[in-house]
Amino acid sequence: MWQTIKNAFSDKSIRSKMFATFGLLLAFRIGCWIPLPGIVPDFYANQFGGTGDNNTIFQLLSMMSGGSMQYLTFFALGILPFINSFIIMQLLTLIIPPLERLSKQGDEGREKITMITRYVAIVLALVQAIGIVVAHKEYIDPMFGEKDGWLTAIMLIALLIAGSTIVMWLGERITQLGIGNGTSLIIFSGILSSFGLSLVNTIPQIQADANKLWNLFGYILVVLFLFAFIVFVDGGERKIKVNYAKQVKGNKMYGGQSTFIPIKVNSSGVMPIIFASSFMTIPMMIFQFVGQDSQAYINYMTFCYPGNGTSQWQWVGWLFYYLVMLVLIIFFAYFYAQIQFNPQDVARNLQQYGGSIQGIRSGKPTSEYLQKINNRIVLFGALFLGFIAIVPAALFQLIGAGLNLNNAISSTGMLIAVSVALEFNKQLEGQLMMKHYKGFLR
Q1: pLDDT single digits (tens) 54-97
Q2: Which residues are CB-contacts of 349 (< 8 A; sequence separation ≥ 6)?
Q3: Mean pLDDT in residue range 437-441
Q4: Mind spelling out the 3-state secondary structure of the chain?
Q5: 114, pLDDT greater than 90
Q6: Degrees (nearest 5) of the Cα angle 163, 157, 27?
Q7: CA atoms within 13 A on the CB side of 287
Q8: Please, are residues 179 and 18 in contact by the beta-carbon 8 Å criterion?
Q9: Strand 258-264 to 355-356 pairing
Q10: Residues 69, 71: Cα–Cα separation, whole Å
Q11: With a threshold of 0.70, does the pTM exceed it?
């Protein structure tokens, strides 16, 4: 990977694209530190970003926004409204015929869907901004207690929406002018910056107590091991060998070759965890609007949420929460796999071009065989995602709690970081390969 980056900087055009990517990411990071008017970032971070229950909902949001959510800065909403909008549009495209027809109309149809996605993202940003300002008004500014406090609320909501829109624009410009997917790179930079800031904040604690240095070493070792494990599984795939029959057309012979169908172990990536996490936060977000003094909220936090109950019922919350989380991850892994891989279409294409799997008849037997193989691989990938979503959280809670590192990076953040880094490397290799081909054709 480092050699690929070195070779990329040696080419002028690719170097320009990389500088454009880094420049736009720098603009995003600068916006993450611009405070909103009327906000005292340190006070808000101490109240909202502490160890209270309120922080649980927005841990992922704050991490993916590079800590801007924790301090409620200009880019506090980040790119997440656009991501949620993109996910919603993907699902709606499968069930709404007009959207499905648009998706099959080439570049023009995709551009219309992208425009609708932007509008939906702005609506979602409006909803999230209202929720944040209303739910945490006591942490923001004393002006809310004045008679014109609603004007302050409207101003903050408008600025949060504007910041989210600018971040969405930066992501599109990175995709257009730079290298890689802009949305993914913005999330990647936010995750790395949050992790780096958390490590920097441990320095005063280690200076006060040198024994905590061992906690830091143990934490970093666990993170490195999990990164290596994610990279190992991410590259795993099942190769199904396909043989093509020889065909004589005129004076030429075609076919007679062998290839394979690659089925990745974790073809759905991090999406099942994101979907499952979104569903698991719905009850908490409802309680944030309804009120935290209700008996329903108290019962939920006692019996259904990990780490917040009494000593007698705390294990019940852990077991219930993570069991439901695992079931949702498996469900969404199979759901996403059905979208990405259609055994009937693959079997039909193989039969059309004279391909066959050794020992399997063409047509329906081939599709049934591919479906069976895909189901087994998806189950393994779903269990892997469940392991990554649950086990690291317990390890980080155990090892990093002494240094307040238990929320420095999540399993979802690690999966996203690895996926984006590998994809960025592939993009650079593709750009370099195109340059070599152009030089060869000359």
Answers
A1: 344 455 566 666 667 777 788 888 888 888 888 788 778 878 88
A2: 355
A3: 49
A4: CHHHHHHHHCCHHHHHHHHHHHHHHHHHHHHCCCECCCCCHHHHHHHHCCCCCHHHHCHHHHHHCCCHHHHCECCCCCCHHHHHHHHHHHHHHHHCHHHHHHHCCHHHHHHHHHHHHHHHHHHHHHHHHHHHHHHCHHHCCHHHHCCCHHHHHHHHHHHHHHHHHHHHHHHHHHHHHCCCCHHHHHHHHHHHHHHHHHHHHHHHHHHHCCCHHHHHHHHHHHHHHHHHHHHHHHCCEEEEEEEECCEEECCEEECCCEEEEEEECCCCCCHHHHHHHHHHHHHHHHHHHHCCCCHHHHHHHHHCCCCCCCCCCHHHHHHHHHHHHHHHHHHHHHHHHHHHCCHHHHHHHHHHCCEECCCCCCCHHHHHHHHHHHHHHHHHHHHHHHHHHHHHHHHHHHHCHHHCCCCCCCHHHHHHHHHHHHHHHHHHHHHHHHHHHHHHHC
A5: no
A6: 10
A7: 20
A8: yes
A9: unpaired
A10: 5
A11: yes
* pLDDT of 158 strictly over 80: yes
> What token pair was written down for 144?
């809310």
Tokens of 198: 């958390």
Q: Which residue has the tokens 């069991």?
A: 323
What's the token pair of residue 241?
């060998």
> In residues, how long is the chain?
442
